[in-house]
Amino acid sequence: MFGSRLSIAMGLVLVLCVILLVRLFDLQIMHYSYYSMLSRQNSINPMPIQPVRGLILDRNGIVLADNFPVFSLDVIPSHVKNLHALIVKLGHLISLNSQDLRDFKRRMGQLHPYDRVVLRSHLTTEEAARVAVNLIHLDGVQLHARLERYYPLGGLAVAAVGYVSRINSWDEAHINRIKYAGVQHIGRLGIEARYQNVLLGRVGFKQVEINAHGRAVRVLSRTPPVAGKNIYLNIDAKMQALAEQALGTFAGGVVAMDPQTGAVLTFVSMPTYDPNEFVDGISERNYKALRDNPLHPLVNRALAGEYDPGSTIKPYYAIAGLASGKISAKHRAWCPGWFRLPGSRHVFHCWKRGGMGLVDMHDAIEQSCDVYFYKLAVKLGINTMTRYLGYFGFGHKTGIGISGELPGLVPNEAWRRAHHLHWYPGETVVAGIGQGPLLITPVQLADAVSAISMYGKRFVPNLVYAIENPVTKTMHYVHATLDPPVPVPKRDFKTVIKGMEAVVYNPQGTAFGMGAKAPYKIAGKTGTAQVMRQNTLQRAERERDLPLQDRDDAVFEAFAPVGDPTIAVAVVEEHGGHGGEIGAAIARKLMDYYLLKDGRPRVPLPPPKTAGGHPPPPERG
């Protein structure tokens, strides 16, 4: 029995040996080439090469968004047996704080296990050297030198430029993984987001041979990346800084445009913030400080700040009155200092205590007579007022091309009905002086006053001047785009512009003195938007004694030179009081810089060619 069992066992062993030899013969001789190729493929790892992100520059070549080299320490979780032990080991080589570890865990949850996860960026040279020496003992760890986004001027023009931040889980689900292979940042706001594809460039790849520990042994082939294109803005960085400094501690927005091209020369939202904090992930503490700041620096006021226009809306109603035939330029109205609707006891006051007597349209614009525009509003009716404001772009997005823009609000009876409410005649009256539910944004106001300066011709506001290929240095200029013109005769614009000139140059003008000694002609209009609905006379008596948060918003619009305008400015200063004070001073500084620049005539960049227009915006319901 023992002998027979031994024979059977030996026979089985012999059969198995024969099978093994046959299989080895098949692998090593018959199919050697095939399996050798598979083996080589298993040891070859395609690694992405991140392209250099394009720069963002102002119109004069000042860099607003740059790149600088940093050392980054990455971990591939799938190549690590004991992640905790690895972190402890790395903690002896580099500085790792609790925020670094929290961010690392958060990023691990957003990416796949075989993806590289940044443990810490911005290693010092000494830290990078210590890691490099010990890298052979650190499975799953990679040290990279890469370029990271940097904003050398901090928060200057951040409302236009925006910022980049790390790609998160939401981005992962919506982007092309091949296109973004190896890319860790994506544009979030402003130009960085709007022109993400232009700035990104094209990812390169290299075929790398790796060993069993996942470390690169040699590079077998390389497809170089293509750098992103550079973007030149219409913004002038020095002019931008001038506007931001002029606003000082006040919150608000300033937008300056070239009426003949739509080029946005200044795009200010105050207060600003440092976009560099967002690039590698802002700390919870710093983000909370920004979020809870009572001045709301994260709100783009130039684009999404909605304000009562105050008396800056009066020139547009004057144009509506002339164009609709409801009033003539020579028509005179009596201003006793107050107005009352027939059959009503409610009194609507003029800002001037004793009234202004008989005033025509020129006088009413010059002195900003409220009673004149109360009466004009009643003649026009809210629907006609709304229609003409729509011609100037109020109530619609301007199409400036960056995200976050709000349309403001131009109310009418249909809008009220949609909210199951009734429109009252008194609301038409207060709308006549830019109060009530009427809301505008600074960029809309700059766009609208540009249309007045051009006798109704309108361009879409545009932040980008040109796109440059960084290799060939060829420039692609962004064409100006026409908006539908304002359907109003040129003579009506001239009448209103004369009144706006008087605002600046006549002693009774509400911005008198703004144009003193200017070698060019200015037209403007002041506005004071009430924040708290109080009696106007009472407010006027104690405006300077009010706490800052209770003061009216100051609004101002202007353009120059009259007849051949090259700059139009809109200023909104929250709780600034009267628009003819700081607002007019800011506009004058920007005009002097742009038109004179150290006393010499400014030579502008050649304007882009016009490239057709848009269909008219729909009526707002």
Please explain how this structure is put together.
With 621 residues, the protein is an alpha+beta fold. The chain has 2 domains: 46-233, Penicillin-binding protein 2a (Domain 2) (Alpha-Beta Complex), CATH 3.90.1310.10; 238-292 and 305-613, Beta-lactamase. The chain is built from 23 helices and 24 strands. Strands 2, 3, 4, 5, 10, 18 and 19 form a 7-stranded mixed β-sheet that branches. β11 (252-257) and β12 (264-270) form a beta hairpin. α14 crosses α16 (370-380) and α14 (314-324) packs antiparallel against α21 (490-505). It is elongated. The model is unreliable at 532-548 and 611-621 (pLDDT under 50).
Concise structural overview:
The protein is an alpha+beta fold. Helices cover 35% and strands 20% of the residues. The strands form seven sheets. Strands 2, 3, 4, 5, 10, 18 and 19 form a seven-stranded mixed beta sheet that branches.
